[in-house]
Amino acid sequence: MIEVPLRTTRLLPHTLLGRIGLVVLAAAITVLPWLVPSYYAELVTSAMIAAMLALSMQLLVGATGLVSLGHGAFYGLAAYVVYLISPENVALPIWITLPVAMLVAGAAACVVGLFSLRTTGFFFLMVTLAFGQMIFFVFHDTKLGGGTDGAYLTKPLISAFGATLDLPRKQKYLGTYYVALVQLVAMYLGLAMLLQTLFGRALEGIRVNEHRMRAIGFDTFKIKLIAFTLAGALAGAAGHMWALHRGFVNPEIVGWHQSAEALLMILLGGLGSLHGPILGALALTGLGEVAQLLTERKLLVEGLVILAVVILLPRGLAGLGSRNTSNGAGDRHG
Amino acid sequence: MGDPAATTPANALVLCTEGLSKSFGGLQATRDVSLSLHRNELHAVIGPNGAGKSTLVNLLAGEFTPSAGRILLEGRDITSLNVWQRTRAGVARSFQRTNIFLPLTVHENVRLAAQARTGTLASLLSRAANSRTLFEITDLAIERVGLTQSRLRPSGELSHGEQRQLEIAMTLATDPKVLLLDEPLAGMGQEEGERISALLKSLARDHAVLLIEHDMDFVFKVADVMTVLVEGAVLASGTPQSVRESAAVQAAYLGGHA
Amino acid sequence: MTLSSFLAQILNSLQYGLLLFLISSGLTLIFGVLGVINLAHGSLYMIGAYTAFVVARAVGSLWIALPVAMLGGILLGSLLERFLFRYFYKREHLDQVLLTFALILLFEEGRSLLVGNDFYSVPIPAALDFSIPIVEGFSYAAYRFVVIVCCLVLAAALFVWIERTKMGAIIRAAAERPEMVDALGIDPRRVHLTVFAVGTALALTAGALNAPLSSVYPNMGDNLLIISFVVVVIGGLGSVSGAFWSALLIGLIDTMGKAYAPKASGLAIYVLMAIVLLWRPNGLFGQRGT
Q: Are residues A1 and B132, on separate chains, in Cβ contact within 8 Å?
């Protein structure tokens, strides 16, 4: 009775070609800094951090069917945590800053989730947005993190087992670049493994039909809360990386536009895959750069592109190929 | 599945309600309903449209909270348990309108139901592909409802009747003591109906089954016990024979031609 | 805390609460009846304020700017519904979010292209630039009274429309059960268009009315959008009267908080929202789930 072909969860690449493509992409990113000027390497670092944020959000949107507008707040919060725990002029090792940032972001997500996951649909959107803005105002209105102007911070040291990666100033960007790459790959593989567990199945069930999940005995609230917390902690890893990359925090990184942009990357890359958000983040960062160079009106171009995508390609760029549909998600909000 | 029958009498009381009532705004949908379900018994609830049959199922399944009254499962008060807690306690329901995971295959649908009992922490640690026990429970439930041939088909491609069978397989996979089946025959043809009827009889051999049904002929054929609901209240209850002969039922519902 | 400053804060909260109502009543109606989440609603408020600024600068009178903003709102709302939102009613929330996010970016860039990124103040009309004495030692700006009165008139008109007309009955029914629109004998497309146009016009009018008090600046609608969401969450989805009471409540808490507990004020309304959600997940006045 056993020979059941178990589809890997929808979000993972199904074909050998897809998997090879991902490996090639990772290899290309690995050698890139040696081929292009540092400006472009730093741009790719930004894109990888954006990809981490979008990837963490895909755990909510693509895997569980939760569209949150407060997700960016956990990302920004984590960046601020790096600032807040870093003593002036002393660089803390990354093995302290990263876990602390993730822990705080995860804890904040857990609390927000306790309230917001009691609601669904529109209410969930609005409530996550409102809680996200609450975190935004903490940094915007108080002197805690330098107020509206933001603050510079001492970048954490990249060190492990007592050895510190001590690059000359001109090559510092390489350190952040590869740390970001390692984290992105780790996050991708970690999520891929998570989705293949029974827990991943339960998330899929909730996305398709939460009502039925409760009727067959799942504590869906608890499952969603775990996913929400985990996604928050992963967003925290991205935010931590942002602080490490830029050495600067300001309230803008906590605001809800962050969440909207991450959603855009997910939609660009396609809702139905785990690698989609990564491609979406690379595409959007590239697009923003080109738009800035050509028109100096990045947001105008971005707005027009989003408009074009939602009007013309309701399934995202990935929908251009013949991806299967998931029309069964009909009564998600029933 | 279930407790070994040896420890309790074959027809032990499994689920009972005491004075169950539910009102929505000013409308009283369920009035003071007391009924009992025994092991190995098929208990059919009939009544005209709007008699409160669906409300009753929703009350028993935990979808609605009663305005008054209690629900006891094997003597334990489960009135305050919510939907998933009731399912885990052993009260599983199927839906009147087919309610399945359409993009998933038959096997995946049933496996999700079987998986619900796995603790959350354990579910985080076990790869879905390695869960042999789940596979066995799943295959057993699928076999029981007769869908083995279709187990790898996407549930969206099944015929209406097969989807109803799948509904039942999903409730079975949760390892229930009580099955609440809300019009499992809705929209079925003659032949499919026969199959479900045989299935229901077999289910009643090792579960307490509460059946909500429209089709009178069918109910009289399969039920061990019947309860007639009218306007939310119990009009008559007993064996099909006694219900058929009840004057009140004759007058109010069967219209004499039964 | 003196009596006169307390009175001033009470009037300020009333004025702010009513302004919030104008914005959030449109939001809640558009959610309730059309099933669309409009993140660009705050940008509509911004457009109203800039309309007031541009018109007042051009013709030197705010009195012309107000009707221009209102009519402009009806026109803009109709165009947006007819050519854009109509195609998004049945789409996923995610698509609606991105559509309206794109509109925010485009509206802000449009504003930046046309007017620039500077702060501007909008002068209070000379005829109203005085204070009305209320009690001894306390007087209140006449223009703020005018704003209060205008908001009350608009709110009254809105309630009459919703409670007393056939269209209003349909809107109320639809806010509770969206499928009702199709069954009530008025072309649902007309209902949708009207609701969207009215919601937009209210947001623009609110922006124009408040422009002399708030001045105009980039992204000025962002904060109000979030607070309006809180109003809608507390008031309950699709409930105009819920939005009214909840807007007044938020106006009171926010204004009083800023005046007497400035450190905690930013958080107060979110704490309130959290409490309401724990207690009644569908909002204080909400009849239906989401």
A: no
Residue among C93, C102, C277 minimizing CB distance to A125: C93
What gap in Å lies between CA C276 and CA C231, rounded to an integer? 11
In a domain, B140, yes or no: yes
**Residue C105: closest C-alpha in chain A:** A303
- Containing structural domain, residue C25: 13-220
Pair (B192, B164) in one structural domain: no
Domain that holds residue B74: 11-90+176-258
* Entry pTM: 0.88
Domain check: are B170 and B183 in the same one? Answer: no
**Alpha-carbon span B258 to B74, nearest angstrom:** 35
Length of chain C: 290
Answer with the one of B175, B201, B217 that is the final residue of a domain. B175
Our count of domains for chain C comes to 1
Task: Measure CA B168 to chain center.
Answer: 8
Classified as helix, coil or strand, C178 is: helix
Number of structural domains found in chain B: 2
Q: ipTM of the assembly?
A: 0.88
**Does residue B131 sit in the same domain as residue B163?**
yes
Shared-domain flag, residues B86 and B181? yes
Name residues 216-255 of chain A within 8 A of B (Cβ).
Answer: 216-220, 222-223, 226
Inside any domain, residue B5: no
Closest residue in A to B124 (Cα) is A199
Which one of C37, C92, C109 has the shortest CB-CB distance to A297? Answer: C109
> Do residue B189 and residue B252 come from a single domain?
yes
Same domain, B182 and B255: yes
| Nearest one of A188, A199, A249, A253 to A224, comparing CA atoms | A199
The SS3 of residue B211 is strand
Q: What is chain C's Cα-based Rg?
A: 19
pLDDT by residue for chain C (290 residues), tens only, comes to 577 788 889 999 999 999 999 999 999 999 888 888 899 999 999 999 999 999 999 988 888 999 999 999 999 999 999 999 998 888 888 888 889 999 999 999 999 999 999 999 998 888 888 888 877 777 888 899 999 999 999 999 999 999 898 888 888 877 776 666 666 667 788 889 999 999 999 999 999 999 999 899 998 998 899 899 999 989 988 788 999 999 999 999 999 988 888 777 777 888 888 888 878 877 777 654 43
Q: Are residues B85 and B202 in the same domain?
A: yes
From the list B61, B31, B247, the residue with the least C-alpha distance to B171 is B61
- C/B Cβ contact: 3+ pairs below 8 Å: no
Q: Looking at the complex, does the CB of residue C273 fall below 8 Å from at least one CB of chain A?
A: yes
